[in-house]
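Example for tutorial group B:
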């Protein structure tokens, strides 16, 4: 049991009506590993994440947490042990920054203690205590991402999910958030699954990359292996150099 991966997806399928989106996804996430799932628009990355989180019910297949199917007690344990950075940040406009960060603290604690934890997490993402009492409407896009990141790590999760963490940021801010995420994952020893279109960010964040295409993981490997693998896997080549891939497509 202790040898089991932290999280494992086995033969996951999910469709909507006649449309098969996931056609047998197999994935493992080791303890402390940062896995980045890439794939074109509409390939089912979000559906995969939703199935893992229990927001969508798979048609078949299993999600295992510490080797146990994610249902009943294992699901309850998992719910306490994961952090999530949603694509748009998904902060509550009516709560101030520290209340947003402390929102998912599972350990019961008074407001003063919760605020202290929130301020500490804000410092970890490069924001000072003066931000704690501001509201989301007062913040820039980059600051909102940082606050959302502070919330994702608030309860010291074992696994953190990042849904398109650099979407909507300019290249410099995207690079900063990417470096911050990589640092947090390395420092805390948390495992991470990120989904992204941003190859620059994937290369920095990933210990391992998995490419989702036609409902399956068609390639997985280390970022340094991607270039060589692209000669065998056209979809990978398209990600690494979309302009060249388009130019090579007849009638583009
Ligand atoms: N609730 C739903 N009902 C019907 N179809 C759905 C539903 N959720 C997702 N889909 C379909 O499943 C497919 C995969 O969607 P998904 O959002 O997972 O793609 P994605 O890889 O995350 O794309 P993007 O990178 O553009 O966000 C799409 O064709 C989408 O329309």
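The residue assignment follows.
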């Amino acid at each position: 049991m202790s040898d089991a991966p932290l999280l494992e997806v086995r033969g996951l399928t999910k469709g909507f009506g006649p449309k098969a989106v996931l056609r047998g996804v197999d994935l493992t996430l080791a303890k402390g590993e940062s896995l980045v799932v890439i794939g074109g628009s509409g390939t089912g990355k979000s559906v995969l994440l939703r199935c893992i989180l229990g927001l969508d019910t798979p048609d078949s297949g299993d999600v295992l947490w510490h080797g146990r199917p994610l249902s009943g007690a294992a699901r309850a344990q998992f719910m306490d042990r994961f952090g999530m950075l949603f694509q748009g940040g998904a902060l509550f406009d009516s709560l101030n920054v520290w209340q947003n960060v402390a929102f998912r603290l599972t350990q019961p604690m008074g407001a003063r203690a919760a605020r202290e934890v929130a301020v500490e997490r804000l410092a970890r993402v490069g924001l000072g205590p003066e931000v704690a009492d501001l509201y989301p409407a007062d913040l820039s896009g980059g600051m909102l991402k940082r606050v959302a990141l502070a919330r994702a790590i608030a309860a010291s999760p074992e696994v953190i999910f990042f849904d398109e963490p650099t979407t909507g940021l300019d290249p410099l801010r995207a690079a900063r958030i990417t470096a911050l995420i990589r640092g947090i994952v390395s420092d805390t020893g948390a495992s991470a699954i990120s989904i992204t279109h941003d190859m620059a960010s994937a290369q920095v964040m990933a210990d391992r990359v998995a490419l989702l295409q036609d409902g399956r993981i068609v390639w997985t490997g280390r970022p340094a292996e991607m270039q060589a693998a692209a000669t065998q896997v056209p979809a990978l080549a398209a990600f690494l150099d979309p302009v060249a891939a388009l130019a090579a497509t007849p009638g583009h």
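The chain has a mean pLDDT of 88. Compare this with the pattern of hydrophobic and polar residues in the output above.
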